Description:
This protein is of the alpha/beta class. It is about 35% helix and about 20% strand.
Amino acid sequence: MKTLLVVDDEVGITEALNDLLSEEGFHVLVAGNGREALTRMAEKRPDLILLDYMMPVMDGRELLLALQADAALRHLPVLMMSAVPRSSLPPDCKPTGFLRKPFTIDRLLMEVNRLLGATAKP
C-alpha cells in the first residue's frame, strides 16, 4: 500500500483528499503546513507528497526547498496544488507535478498514479 502525505492548511481539502485517496487504497497522512509535514515524514516516509503552495508557518515552496536540500528526501515526488498558475511559481520552485485548483477527481487520480509510476485508473 502506497503512502501519500497531503499537506494543506485548509481542513476541508485535507479531509476530502484523505477520504478520496483512502477509498482508492492509499494510506494517507495529513499535515497542515510544511513544518508539520517534515515531522510526519520523520515518522513515516511517504511515496508521494500532495503539497499546497500557499500555507502559513512553512509554505509549499519552503518545504520543497527543504526536501531538495535533504539527500534522503530529495527524490520524493511532489504534486503541488495551487490556485495560481504554474507559470507564477518562483524559478526555484520545481515540483514533480502540478495541479491547478480547482481540479477534478479524475485529474487528481491520474496525476497521483502517474507520479507513482502506475497506470491511471479509468
